[in-house]
Amino acid sequence: MTRQTIPERKDIPDHHKWDLTSLFASDEDWEKWVTEVESQIDSYAVYKGRLKDSADVLKAALDFHLSLRRKLERTYTYAHLKSDEDKSNQFYLGLHQRAVSLHARASESASFMTPEIQAIPDDQMHSFLGDESLAEYKFHLEKILRYKPHTRSETVEHVLAMSQEMAQAPTQVFGQLDNVDLNFGHLENEDGKKIELSHGNFSTFLISPDRDLRKKAFFQYYQAYQEHQHTLAATLLHGIKKDLFYSRVRHFDNCRASALFADRIPDSVYDNLIETVKSNLAPLFKYLNFRKQALALSDLHFYDTYVPIVSEVTFDIPYEEAVDMSIQAMRPLGDEYVNVLKEGLLGGWVDRYENRGKRSGAYSAGSYDSPPYILLNYEARNINSVYTLLHEGGHSMHSFYSNKHQPYVYHDYTIFVAEVASTFNENLLSRYLLEHYKNDPAKTAYILNREIDNIRATLLRQTMFAEFEKITHRIVEDNAPLTLDVITDTYRELLETYFGDTLVLDPALSLECLRIPHFYSAFYVYKYATGISAAIALADKVVNEGAPAGATYLNFLKLGGSKFPLDELFDAGVDMQSPKPIQRAIQYFSDLVDRLIAACRQL
Questions:
Q1: Strand partners, 196
Q2: For each successive 10 residues of the chain (603 residues), what is the average pLDDT?
Q3: How far apart are the C-alpha atoms of 117 and 545, rounded to whole Å?
Q4: Is 392 a known active-site residue?
Q5: Of these residues, 165, 379, 392, 426, which one is catalytic?
Q6: Within 10 A of 329 (CB to CB), how many other CB atoms are there?
Q7: Whether the Cβ atoms of residue 539 and residue 431 lie closer than 8 Å to each other
Q8: Chain centroid to CA 523: how far?
Q9: Calpha distance 451→593 (Å, rounded)
């Protein structure tokens, strides 16, 4: 029997790793940069108490603040990317901690700025906003002024800034436990190889045609969470308590209102998502019942919900081939988009493969002064990795266009629109593959199945997560206990609602809520669901209307953070305050289910 283990970082060839030299050529250069940035923090004192003096002084203060923030962004990006290469590497963990501390110290020194700006008399601020020298900062200042009811005194703001690093404790504890300390053991795969079970390959085991292997992987994976369930429940609780603390200090009605305020998202958008999805679960139930029938199972468990229904179709897609697929899928957006994307994915943007200690999952991250880097844990045998590649490529191209067309102050787009750019790419990939394989019934059925599961995971599953966040935060807000039993019972009730009687709910599945990293970024997950709904609507436009719609979409990417997200999407042709995009996405899902059933009948 052969034994396969996760490689060490040093054993991964350099051309499979991201190239961070555009940030810093070496750790020594980072150290020199940090020393310079540290020396500039005290310069905030030059502007303290003077922001009301004139438009010129206010502009100079904003110029300095944003310039320093830009340097801090570069500092932090290098440190956190290096730390994520191997979470057990204590040297880079130290760099990351220092970068976080440096950012907190700068925020502490800058904490006077927002209260001072908000304290400027309305008539004087009106005059400042009309001054040509501040034209570039007009929207930025208007966003600051929106927070006047939620900004505290200079002293309180100073204390809040000091608390930021400490407030990261639940996130940091969860991250270290989840990425470093949990041990999932080994499994023997279909080929007789003994493979170490990990976050990176768990989904690969779940798509195995061997049901016994899927079942064993599922229960073995969740056994690790069961062994740490009390610690994880305490970590989640205190993450929510952190959210509650900041929402109350800033005079928000609740945690959700605090989280939605920055993007100017009405509660109705969040509630409309949940209610629209819950009122239209019939296509999901239809699909799951068909899945049980197609797999010839007497009952359906969670570990049966990802294995391809068309089992004879297998994939072994090398990374370079995945890049080529991605480029072909994105051609409706024109030459510049695909050429930049190809160069980045094959160049130094991407850290491609799993190594021991590497952060799980995938993300796109960078700074205004660096490429939009991508962390992957690519698995050639799992087609989901191709989708993940293009998903993160969507984020990175959003950053590319935003950085290219916006000044630093507006380059940072919100997550609400970010998830549109990523899921838009996935949707175009599925459309491309369905056309490419249109004469191959088995592969057509496979891609339909994959697209259905993607929407199920992104729209329906993330909506369930969003409702879980809403309920658990409300429990803590009402000063009720949020124990392990309350957490898992709440989650099980949601599983029963969102799956009906289509799924056997194994008790281990109730622990799923303890392993979701996004629950440590409050009220984040709903943006996946709204994002894919907007993305489906925009993909329809690009595919059906051609180049003009493609140009409109690229203009949307170029907006960065220069407008509120609902306004940016409205300009692109999607009204997310209406239930129509959610309804359209569910109808698209339903149509795919019908197409899958028809395709399977031809096999």
A1: 186
A2: 76 95 96 96 96 97 98 97 94 95 94 93 95 96 94 87 90 92 89 87 89 96 96 97 96 97 96 97 98 96 93 86 96 96 96 93 95 95 90 97 97 92 94 88 90 93 98 98 98 97 97 95 94 95 93 97 97 95 96 96 86
A3: 46
A4: yes
A5: 392
A6: 23
A7: yes
A8: 12
A9: 10
pTM: 0.84
Burial of 370 (0-12, 13-18, 19+ CB in 10 A): buried
Closest CA to 282 of 597, 594, 590: 590
Q: What is the DSSP secondary structure assignment for residue 459, as one 8-state letter?
A: I
Residues 6+ apart with CB under 8 A from 478: none
CB neighbourhood size of 67 (10 A): 12
The 8-class DSSP code of residue 428 comes to: H
pLDDT at 189: 81
What is the 3-state composition of the chain as percent helix, strand, coil, each rounded to the nearest 5? 70, 5, 25
Structure tokens at 81: 């990317």
Provide the residue type at 276 as one letter. Answer: T
CA angle 26, 29, 32 (to 5 degrees): 155
Can you name the CATH fold of 3-167?
Butyryl-CoA Dehydrogenase, subunit A; domain 3 (1.20.140)
What is the rounded CA–CA span in Å between residue 64 and residue 278? 48
Sign of CA dihedral 393, 524, 581, 292: positive
**Residue 363: in which H helix or E strand, if any?**
strand 363-365
